[in-house]
């Protein structure tokens, strides 16, 4: 291992900060890249192949996206010294770039969402009826999370009913979790969001069924419950539909065990696999997939079923890997293990019922069809749309009346463009 | 014009050719018809046609307004135009201005000898407009792409038109000149840049013409060679027939027919080859415009640098696998016939098992999270 | 405003839509630009809400895959945002496509040009397959050409992941002329071979300058294929008679490819025949193809920047440029077009006069 451990740690930190800066200045790619370059330079300088390191940036076939992020990882990859100019494919994924968090950050995100929502709803209540927010008991972030978790448990049940493949189930659960990293249950109740996430997952995993037959098989659900939310869910997911799953990694791990010469067929009994798969399913109740990589979760699921097999396999993969990487992985394994054991189960239904009861009282009134606040909001939207239509009509009229000899040239280019832009609302 | 010296400024460096070799050949039968005549001297600043030559206007009715000498008396009469757009003959110009700047005999404006130019248009107002426009175009050389939108480009054209109009009609001359000067100062870099662009363009055109010429020559050479070859072949055929007729015992008609057939075959092969040569000539032409400095490089089988963990596992030919039992049995053979390869699914699974296996998790929160606390900021990066 | 809406509004602001440049089956395409840099982009606006099953599958597929694939031979999805109920994909702007180039009779292809396009196609496809994605709609007009000559795979509206064992796929994919025989026979379990067949058809089309297997209907397509390549025997393609929609369509003899592709090199024909092999599993893989001697033998593939390009595509950027000064840096060649096209379209006599002075071209020969 030509790269020293101490250096790795520093670089990992630098890389991450660079990444977060990049995200902070969203839309300003330049800045992110610049940050990335700085990191690269430091690394390259120490490695003694500065020129090569720099030149690869330009040659990179894969294009710009998430380029700064690649730097985060580069030194901790065990094969890095063999393919120093390569970027691991996982780091091109949206899962790596946009849906990977530190545990601390998850807490922060959920708290921030929760407090923002509470503030907004409070003012909506007060606008409707001054002082009315005072005696409302709002949900906190943990309670919100509890409710989401309950609806996660509904997805496997529905998937069993529809006989959807595991891929659909896992994807829908991921979507539901990701949705509530950008929305709160006080705005959008998880029941319909869950149904929508599942329906969307059937499409994104290429197992589509008609909406009609989907909703008719679910009690008290109409097609509009799903249709109304589908776009919002897709938008909240950032239209990033591809998900890497740990059940596939577990399958691959299981297959790859057959490459180990000192593992007998008896040791690879199907029971072990089934148990491991159960742990993978349990992991879906946890935040593991938002923090760790599917292959790591699969490895932990196997180790819960058979520590012996997991260790054997890991040993075979760790040869030639630096001690630092092995140690990192060891601590990751412990952490995931912890998550699955302690939070990898459905929530206590009674506790959730209480949360759901309180939710009825603190829902965002702007999102409750028929409420005053809802009507006010709709009226405001309608007013804006009307203003836009008027402006458009005016533009057209002005363009027609315009007899400036040079105005025609402009008409050709601009107002028409405007008209084309404005057809967004049809 | 309030600044006479400036009027000829744009002509700096050009010389008016003295003496008239111009009209010696023109004994026209219809002396009253204005005629034009081409000179090949590009030193003239008159309006040039596409071949770069100046077409100088002259008429059988020409008369010098100063000395009243006319073409009837002096067939070599050549009238030039002053900066104040008055005509006079070359001998008057010599007489009046050789000793230095002097007032125009017609409008009293101070003129210099070098600032007289040949006349291109019959109507001197056109002459003036053209000159003004030419002068303006030199500085006002912005292009459509120098503007952020169509409106600002139009505004610019409008302004140019305005200035031009003022100069042509001698309106607000001082103020207009000041405008031009201001513009020139403000845009000196861009003006310079556009001049260079124009030069490059002219150069490219020249190169293109040269390329075309070379190619034409090449083709002509090919055609001559071709003819030569054909002639030689015909000669050879003729000799062959005679030889065969001499030596063969076969029927003479058959011998001739056979030789003809062979000759035809050769000739059609040649036609095909010519067609190919022609198309490659055409290709060359289409390629000539492109830069040939970029070399073709050898093919590299895999060019991108995505690492796909392939050194972390070895895929086996076969696995004991519950998920693919049906596929591997495939009693009907339809999965094989359709091209489904379970190995591809295995590859995906095993790769997924080793993908980013040693990736450390993120930890902590960055400063920006704490200060902004805005949850959306974490997701807006692409 | 919700966090989600706010983030979306931020994104939306980054992009400006200009002129409409095309209309597809489920989308309208606009020319646009990045507001801050004026960088040209194409914005594909997909209307949602008009389908009873919600988000259209093509849109879902396209977004899903382009979000993940980053490669110089695959079209870059730069951003996604929504406006009301429309989904907007911001894609890199590409001038032309291979179909336009093939059809442009004024262009002459060198063997090295064809090699270059084939190499870029295989590079893009190999990357899809390496990421376990089938494209399922390869054809010349889905191979777009960038200003610098780079070829890019586009239109992932029919793409999908490789199927897990035992899961069926639809056979109603790939435009007919480029559709492999196993799909014509209704096969529901297939693999990367389907894309390879399409590439083979494109390869042949580049050499012939006309579609190689232009069947008039699905049935006629099989006949066209067999007429060109001979009816497959059980030995050529084991098990094909068991495929769901198998029908005998007549016996045609196998004729050597050489008879039709008279000018092609031996290496080229060898690769072509490996793409158009009946038995899908014996077809060349994208990765094997990239290692085929055709690509390593001389001549080298033409550098993308020198590949033939339609004249219209060369001059078009000038007309379309809007405040993009960089473009004029592309050399004097483009200036050959009138400097001010928009004006020339006008019939108004007043406007007609204004560019007149410019037409005289005073500056030029001074």
Automatic annotation (TrEMBL), chain A:
Molecular function in Gene Ontology: cyclin-dependent protein serine/threonine kinase regulator activity
CDD domains membership: CYCLIN_CCNH_rpt1, CYCLIN_CCNH_rpt2
Top-rank taxon, per record: Eukaryota
Annotated stretches, region: Disordered: 45-69, 380-426
Gene3D superfamilies: Cyclin-like
Biased segments, Basic and acidic residues type: 380-400
Any Pfam family hit: Cyclin_C_2
Entry keyword Nucleus: no
InterPro entries documented for this protein: Cyclin-like_dom, Cyclin-like_sf, Cyclin/Ssn8, Cyclin_C_2, Cyclin_N
SMART domains: CYCLIN
Alphabetical GO biological process terms: regulation of transcription by RNA polymerase II
Domain Cyclin-like, residue spans: 153-235
Keyword terms, alphabetized: Cyclin
Sequence similarity: Belongs to the cyclin family.
Name of the protein in question: Cyclin-like protein
TrEMBL record, chain B:
The keyword Zinc is assigned to this record: yes
GO molecular function: cyclin-dependent protein serine/threonine kinase activator activity; kinase activity; zinc ion binding
Domain RING-type: 64-108
CDD domains named in the record: RING-HC_TFB3-like
Annotated keywords: Coiled coil, Kinase, Metal-binding, Nucleus, Transferase, Zinc, Zinc-finger
Pfam families documented for this protein: MAT1, zf-C3HC4_5
UniProt GO cellular component terms: transcription factor TFIIK complex
Coiled coil: 173-244
Subcellular location: Nucleus
Location, primary (coarse class): nucleus
GO BP annotation list: nucleotide-excision repair; regulation of transcription by RNA polymerase II
Positions of the UniProt region annotated as Disordered: 1-47
Positions with biased composition (Polar residues): 22-43
PANTHER family reported for this sequence: CDK-ACTIVATING KINASE ASSEMBLY FACTOR MAT1
UniProt protein name: RNA polymerase II transcription factor B subunit 3
Species name: Boletus edulis BED1
From TrEMBL, chain C:
Residue span(s) of domain Protein kinase: 15-295
One Gene Ontology term from the biological process aspect of the record: positive regulation of transcription elongation by RNA polymerase II
UniProt EC number: 2.7.11.23
Binding residues for ATP: 21-29, 44-45
Lineage summary: Eukaryota, Fungi, Dikarya, Basidiomycota, Agaricomycotina
Keyword 4Fe-4S among UniProt keywords: no
Naturally occurring in which organism (per UniProt): Boletus edulis BED1
CC terms in the record's Gene Ontology section: cytoplasm; transcription factor TFIIK complex
Entry protein name: [RNA-polymerase]-subunit kinase
């Amino acid at each position: 291992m030509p790269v020293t451990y101490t250096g790795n740690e520093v670089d990992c930190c630098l890389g991450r900060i660079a990444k977060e800066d990049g995200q902070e200045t969203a839309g300003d790619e330049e800045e992110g890249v610049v940050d990335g370059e700085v990191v690269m330079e430091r690394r390259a300088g120490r490695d003694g192949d500065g020129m090569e390191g720099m030149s690869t940036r330009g040659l990179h076939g894969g294009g710009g996206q998430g380029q700064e992020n690649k730097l985060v990882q580069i030194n901790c990859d065990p094969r890095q010294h063999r393919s120093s100019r390569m970027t691991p494919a996982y780091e091109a994924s949206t899962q790596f770039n946009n849906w990977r968090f530190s545990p601390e950050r998850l807490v922060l995100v959920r708290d921030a969402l929760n407090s923002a929502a509470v503030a907004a709803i409070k003012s909506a209540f007060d606008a409707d009826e001054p002082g009315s927010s005072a005696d409302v008991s709002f949900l906190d972030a943990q309670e919100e999370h509890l409710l989401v978790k309950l609806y996660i448990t509904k997805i496997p049940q529905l998937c069993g009913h529809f006989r959807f493949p595991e891929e659909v189930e896992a994807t829908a659960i991921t979507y539901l979790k990701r949705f509530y990293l950008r929305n709160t249950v006080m705005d959008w109740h998880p029941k319909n969001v869950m149904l929508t996430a599942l329906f969307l997952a059937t499409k994104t995993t290429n197992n589509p069924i008609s909406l009609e037959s989907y909703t008719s098989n679910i009690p008290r659900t109409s097609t509009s419950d799903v249709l109304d939310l589908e776009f919002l869910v897709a938008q909240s997911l950032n239209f990033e539909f591809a998900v890497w799953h740990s059940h596939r990694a577990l399958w691959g791990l299981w297959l790859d065990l057959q490459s180990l010469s000192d593992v007998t067929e008896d040791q690879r009994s199907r029971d072990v696999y089934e148990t491991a798969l159960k742990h993978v399913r349990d992991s879906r109740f946890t935040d593991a997939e938002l923090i760790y990589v599917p292959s790591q979760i699969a490895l932990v699921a196997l180790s819960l079923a058979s520590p012996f097999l997991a260790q054997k396999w890991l040993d075979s993969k760790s040869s030639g890997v630096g001690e630092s990487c092995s140690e990192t992985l060891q601590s990751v394994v412990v952490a995931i293990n912890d998550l699955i054991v302690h939070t990898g189960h459905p929530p206590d239904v009674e506790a959730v019922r209480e949360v759901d009861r309180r939710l009825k009282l603190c829902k965002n009134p702007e999102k409750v069809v028929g409420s005053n606040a809802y009507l006010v909001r709709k009226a405001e939207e309608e007013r804006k749309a009307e203003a836009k239509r008027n402006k458009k009509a005016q533009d057209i009229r002005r363009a027609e009346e315009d007899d400036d000899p040079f105005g025609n040239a402009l008409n050709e280019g601009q107002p028409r463009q405007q008209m084309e832009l404005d057809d967004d609302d049809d | 014009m309030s600044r006479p010296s400036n009027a000829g400024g744009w002509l700096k460096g050009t010389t008016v050719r003295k003496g008239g070799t111009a009209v010696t050949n023109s004994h026209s039968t219809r002396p009253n018809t204005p005629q034009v005549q081409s000179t090949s001297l590009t030193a003239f600043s008159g309006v040039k046609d596409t071949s770069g030559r100046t077409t100088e206007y002259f008429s059988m009715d020409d008369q010098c307004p100063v000395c009243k000498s006319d073409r009837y008396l002096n067939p070599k009469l050549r009238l030039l135009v002053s900066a104040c757009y008055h005509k006079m003959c070359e001998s008057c110009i010599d007489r009046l201005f050789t000793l230095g700047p002097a007032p125009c005999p017609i409008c009293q404006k101070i003129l210099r000898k070098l600032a007289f130019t040949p006349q291109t248009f019959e109507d001197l107002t056109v002459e003036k407009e053209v000159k003004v426009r030419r002068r303006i175009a030199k500085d006002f050389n912005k292009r459509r792409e120098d503007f952020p939108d169509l409106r600002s480009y139009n505004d610019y054209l409008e302004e140019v038109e305005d200035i031009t109009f003022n100069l042509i009609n001698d309106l607000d001359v001082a103020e207009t000149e000041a405008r031009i000067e201001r513009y020139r100062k403000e845009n000196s870099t861009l003006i310079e840049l556009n001049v260079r662009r124009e030069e490059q363009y002219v150069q490219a055109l020249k190169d293109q013409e040269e390329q075309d010429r070379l190619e034409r020559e090449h083709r002509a050479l090919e055609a001559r060679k071709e003819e030569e070859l054909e002639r030689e072949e015909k000669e050879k055929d003729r000799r062959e027939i005679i030889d065969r007729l001499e030596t063969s015992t076969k029927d003479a008609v058959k011998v001739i027919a056979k030789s003809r057939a062979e000759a035809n075959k050769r000739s059609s092969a040649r036609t095909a080859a010519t067609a190919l040569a022609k198309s490659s000539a055409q290709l060359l032409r289409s390629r000539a415009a492109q830069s040939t400095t970029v070399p073709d490089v050898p093919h590299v089988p895999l060019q991108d640098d995505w690492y796909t963990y392939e050194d972390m596992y070895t895929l086996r030919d076969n696995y004991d696998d519950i998920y693919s039992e049906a596929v591997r049995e495939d009693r009907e053979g339809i999965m094989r016939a359709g091209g489904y390869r379970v190995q591809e699914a295995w590859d995906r699974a095993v790769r997924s098992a080793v993908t980013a296996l040693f990736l450390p998790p993120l930890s902590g929160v960055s400063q920006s999270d704490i200060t902004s606390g805005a949850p959306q900021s974490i997701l807006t990066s692409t | 405003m919700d966090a989600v809406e706010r983030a979306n509004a931020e994104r939306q602001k980054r992009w400006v839509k200009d002129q409409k440049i095309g209309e597809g089956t489920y989308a309208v395409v606009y020319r646009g630009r990045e507001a801050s840099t004026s960088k040209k982009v194409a914005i594909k606006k997909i209307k949602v809400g008009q389908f009873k099953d919600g988000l259209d599958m093509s849109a879902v597929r396209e977004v899903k895959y382009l979000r993940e694939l980053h490669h110089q031979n695959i079209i870059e999805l730069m951003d996604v945002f929504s406006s009301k109920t429309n989904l907007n994909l911001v894609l890199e702007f590409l001038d032309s496509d291979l179909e336009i180039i093939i059809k442009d009779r004024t262009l002459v292809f060198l063997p090295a040009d064809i090699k270059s396009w084939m190499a870029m196609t295989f590079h893009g496809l190999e990357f899809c397959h390496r990421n376990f994605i089938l494209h399922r709609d390869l054809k010349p007009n889905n191979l777009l050409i960038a200003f610098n000559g780079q070829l890019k795979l586009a239109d992932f509206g029919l793409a999908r992941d490789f199927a897990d064992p035992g899961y069926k796929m639809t056979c109603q994919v790939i435009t007919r002329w480029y559709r492999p025989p196993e799909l014509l026979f209704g096969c529901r379990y297939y693999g990367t071979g389907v894309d390879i067949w399409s590439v083979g058809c494109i390869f042949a089309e580049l050499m012939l300058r006309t579609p190689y297997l232009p069947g008039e209907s699905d049935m006629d397509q099989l006949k066209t294929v067999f007429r060109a390549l001979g009816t497959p025997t059980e030995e050529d393609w084991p098990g094909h008679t068991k495929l769901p929609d198998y029908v005998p369509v007549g016996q045609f003899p196998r004729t050597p490819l050489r008879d039709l592709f008279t000018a092609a090199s031996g290496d080229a024909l060898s690769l072509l025949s490996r793409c158009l092999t009946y038995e899908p599993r014996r077809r060349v893989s994208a990765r094997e193809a990239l290692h085929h001697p055709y690509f390593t033998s001389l001549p080298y593939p033409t550098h993308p920047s020198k590949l033939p390009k339609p004249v219209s595509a060369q001059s078009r950027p000038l007309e379309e440029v809007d405040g993009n000064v960089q473009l004029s840096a592309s050399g004097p060649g483009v200036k050959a077009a009138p400097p001010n096209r928009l004006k020339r379209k006008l019939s108004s006599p007043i406007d007609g006069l204004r560019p007149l002075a410019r037409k005289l071209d005073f500056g030029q020969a001074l």
